[in-house]
UniProtKB/TrEMBL annotation, chains A, B:
Keywords: Kinase, Transferase. InterPro entries: ATPase_NBD, ROK, Tscrpt_reg_IclR_N, WH-like_DNA-bd_sf, WH_DNA-bd_sf. The keyword Ligase does not apply. GO terms for biological process: regulation of DNA-templated transcription. Residues 29-69 form the HTH iclR-type domain. GO terms for molecular function: DNA binding; kinase activity. This is Putative NBD/HSP70 family sugar kinase.
Length: 426, 426
């Protein structure tokens, strides 16, 4: 149940009835334990404003559904002088899965309800040179492997979210366009459901930068708390994408096509982009631009069949060794990163600009020119308070975000998980 | 009460207690009547899922507070065969006021609860050449005039929202920087409250483009219904600002400094901006850029002491008469408008890009190059579905948005208005 606020005149109207109130309160208790950690029933009642009998009944139901469990006894005595039993998230019962298709790899991860990683896999694959169907066969195998691992530890899969580097329409489960994969329109959710044997869990698709932004946002909230509500994440390697969280909400745009920052026309004299246009931002800040500047055509670091992390490790080695050509190329990419970065910060005023994907790996050389452009080119004093940070999630950000979205559905509506905790109620 | 949704992991947790539930349900009923028009109690119950006895009690309280009133009888017989009495918004009791400071004018408007205009005033003023205190004296007079007009018709003022063309921090009621006014930091809310004699109603400040975007969003929702949730509004004359609504929420950024689109560095070879930097978007799309291209230095249309609408009417006259220099200048500004517009559409994927301020007046000449750039430079098919429309609110958009924000507080919490409807409960 989401009610409108002052910023949303004319928004939807939702009144509370008893069923939705119960579901809402289950969600409130479950999310409270997630965000604040193990708690006694009395403390949950005090924090949420619900009365103690209601909280006891809600906790009992969440335990039945396998989402909460009784943990250790409270270490400090409460106001009543009796140590209470703490309830905590039950990590084991329910997992979310994220699965990513990218230009040169596939990846999968499963996270349990407490956010712990159950399984994580990444395999290099030259996706742009395979038929989409073949790639999806490989991806389905990876997903099935993750689901099996979840089942093997006695858990159930709440949902699978696919991350794709392109224009995605989540409502219809379709990929509209992924220029760097060379893919056109594809009913990707249907294709995957079929390959997975029509599973009971939900399958969704989202843009990889959106999912990476959600994962980064989640990490930042753990570190910085609720004073971070607005972030922009830049990710990619060959292609460059942006994911944005504003006022705590993921920005998707009217049709779900927001965040196409790689195609901002910032370099009129730039090269031809994968999208067919000239001067897109990714032609001056993408991995190809860096490699073209830093290396000769026959340099093995350009080989797309090598794992991208190995190739970036080699660039890093050269930069650390003071290779003049590499450093010049990084400085040039950093300057262009600053020009586009300042545009994003002027428009969105994020608390944090997160460097993800390949930008995170080369952050030590890119960050300074980016920060300098933000100081110089952003009109708000002190860059509007924007910090630049390197993501520590590496290339796992999108799959982690995908797994989180699958789990979020359970946090929003705990009744999705059956009371016997053996099957997903659809 | 705003609950988090799936896009907001780790967001706030709010549980319903009886007082907040009652307040929430009062708000639900009041907003439902606003968005759907006059309704019988039975219909409100059916639409909201609340039971009829509860709805009757809620409506009675809203009538007591002067927010709803009984209207005509239902024209069609309901399911029970009895025509019901319709309840409707009581426009007369409560008004919101918006007041704007801009480079060359001040404006004020008061809207009643049904959105009807009670009073509207705009006065040319060369603000950039006056001391801030003198301008605020003039603005306070205008606001007092509006409040008096509201009182004279038996209403009360729920709040006053100031619109300023610059960086605004709503939480502290301060203006940080308004380059085109030549104003630095100013405790503008305190200054105005003092000039207004410490009024009982709330005084707020917001960015003028944000408020104009809210007003435009509200108009679009009236026309297009709920399929519009994402808009970008461009406004301004000398300075250029952007206001953005995404997923139904106004974007403010981490510190409230979002929407500084006028300072996107898109024209490296451009002129010096009011902010001191080179190549900002407003140096190639603002009114000054147009006038420099279209007119000689001694052309009377450049005179800032004339009303901006008169000056734009003269430009329009010349364009309609086929003046080659005017048309060339408009085409040039339109092309630059498209370059920045495509950046905004790639990033935000709005349903609608609204031309406000001076862009709305000259829209007939600017729209085509802008639409063409969106088709050509936006990677999502069909420009991501983005329509370009000219605002019909003219230079009243920001004050209307300000009045609406003041009223929105009442829609969100009807208990702000006292039960005797004679005083604002603070």
């Amino acid at each position: 149940m989401t009610l409108t606020d002052g910023s949303r005149p004319g928004g939807g109207v939702v009144a509370a009835d008893h069923v939705s109130l119960r579901r809402n309160n289950l969600s409130v208790v479950l999310r409270h334990v997630r965000s604040d950690g193990p708690k006694s029933r009395a403390r949950i009642a005090a924090d949420t404003g619900l009365n103690k009998a209601t909280v006891s009944s809600l906790v009992a139901e969440l335990v039945e559904r396998g989402l909460l469990r009784d943990g250790r006894a409270e270490s400090e005595r409460g106001a009543l002088g009796r140590p209470g039993q703490l309830v905590e998230l039950d990590g084991s019962a329910v997992c979310g899965v994220g699965a990513e298709i990218n230009v040169d790899y596939l990846a999968v991860t499963a996270l349990d309800l407490s956010g712990d990683t159950v399984i994580e896999r990444r395999v290099p694959l030259d996706v742009a040179h395979l038929a989409p169907g073949t790639t999806l066969d490989h991806l389905a195998e990876l997903v099935q492997h993750a689901v099996t691992a979840v089942t093997a530890r006695g858990g159930q899969t709440a949902g699978v979210t696919l991350a794709a580097p392109g224009l995605v329409q989540g409502t219809t489960g379709s990929l509209k366009l992924a220029p760097n994969l060379g893919w056109g329109e594809l009913q990707i959710v249907d294709e995957m459901r079929e390959r997975l044997g029509g599973p009971a869990y939900a399958v969704r698709v989202d843009n990889e930068a959106n999912l990476a932004a959600l994962a980064a946002y989640s990490e930042l909230r753990k570190e910085s708390g609720s004073n971070v509500e607005d972030i922009v994440l830049l990710t990619g390697a060959i292609g460059v994408g942006g994911g944005m969280v504003a006022g705590g909400h993921l920005l998707r745009g009217g049709r779900g096509f927001s965040g196409e920052v790689g195609h901002m026309p910032v370099a009129p004299a730039g090269g031809i982009c994968g999208c067919g246009r000239t001067g897109c931002w990714e032609t001056v800040v993408g991995l190809t631009a860096l490699l073209n500047k830093a290396t000769d055509a026959d340099d093995p670091v350009r080989d797309p069949s090598l794992d991208v992390e190995q190739r970036l490790a080699e660039i890093t080695r050269r930069a650390e060794a003071g290779g003049a050509r590499t450093l010049r190329a990084l400085a040039d990419v950093g300057t262009w990163l600053g020009i586009g970065g300042a545009i994003l910060v002027n428009i969105l005023n994020p608390d944090v600009l997160v460097l993800g994907g390949y930008f995170a790996v080369l952050g030590p050389w890119l960050k300074e020119p980016l920060e300098s452009a933000i100081r110089d080119r952003v009109i708000a004093p002190d860059g509007g308070g924007c910090r630049v940070v390197q993501s520590e999630l590496g290339f796992t950000a999108a799959v982690r975000g995908g797994a989180q979205i699958s789990l979020d559905q359970v946090f929003l509506d705990p009744t999705l998980i059956g009371r016997d905790a053996t099957g997903v109620a659809q």
